[in-house]
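Problem: given the chain below (404 residues), write out its structure.
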Amino acid sequence: MTDDPLILRRLVFHIGGYDPYTLPEQSYRRFVRESKRFEKTWCAEAVVSPSAITADEATWHITTTGPNWRVETRYCLVRWDDIIRDVARQPWWQRFPLSQLAFLDFVAAGALWGYIRTNWRYALFFIYPFLLFDIFIIVACFTGIFFANASGSIGIGVIAGLLMLVALVRWPCRWLGVVTLFDDWIFSSKYVRARYPVLEKRFDFIARDIDTAARGAHVDEILIIGHSLGAVLAVDLLDRVLKGNPSIGANVVRVAFLSVGSSILKIGLHRGAKRFRASLQRVASSAGIFWAEYQALTDVMNFYKTNPVSDVGLTTTIDRPVVRIVRIRNMLDPSSYRRIRRNFYRVHNQFISGNEQRTPYDYFMLVCGPLSARRQAKSPDGAASAFDASGALIGTDPDRHAAA
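Solution.
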């Protein structure tokens, strides 16, 4: 892939995972902060413009330069934080029954068995919040029994048990992420069968934006990135793009889809997700869209060593996606990795954070660098061997690149 043309202008659409705490403003600040790591690691300079936030997306521009290269990137964060907030607004008396129904839904639909079959770590991640909540209920029951026996009053025991359960829900459940995970599964259960009107309208709008960019040839590469559950939504978005333009990516503008730390199998292994699997089939069969899937062993929130197409029983005439296994430990300095390795959420977010070491996977090099996503995914060491210690692109004429 050494003859793959360099990227001068790129358009990026990023769909994040289920994170109730990441508003557009917070995502922008994190992007700016993590870009500083990218600058230090790759000896480059990244100038990030102020963000512009609308109801559908948050956008900003990045000008990235090295000794002999320069890239202009328009970055579009596809918003769905409003959907996440709507789920989180449900009262407690409604949220917990819905979460238990979601659990039973995924178990009855064969998803849990699919998780065990494809990646047992994800199966444990699925069970974790529900098992922990059951333990809290047991603790509350024993508390109630203790106070009932001590006081000789069943009423006091019931009140004590309820107070203990409320306390466990308000504090440990939140600290341990149980509430967020419950909301995640509630959303996922509904997403399997129903459409969200707000997302429908938003994706239609963004799909038209992608199609217009692909036809206009004002950029060299269009990159759609889906992180975690955002990879599922990215498949939905790309399916809409393909319905409007089945040959997208086959002409001047290259189109690439990156699913990083993805939860595609989370939905795809549910027997009721027929609509989603049909979308997945169309995206995987598109000759004009290059698709790379990045996975990591230490991230329990993704499916390690799996194929999100064949593992749900789909087949294509082309080999999709290109699956790359990455080591998160190698992305960071040893001291930094030791600080985050027990924080599963932070490890999961390293897929969208700046690296401290040059490795085959680097989010900011894919978003802001001069090498195409296809070239980086196809190369065994990503972009690492394409740059020298000073950050210069090896084998590139700076005058010719500047003229282009």
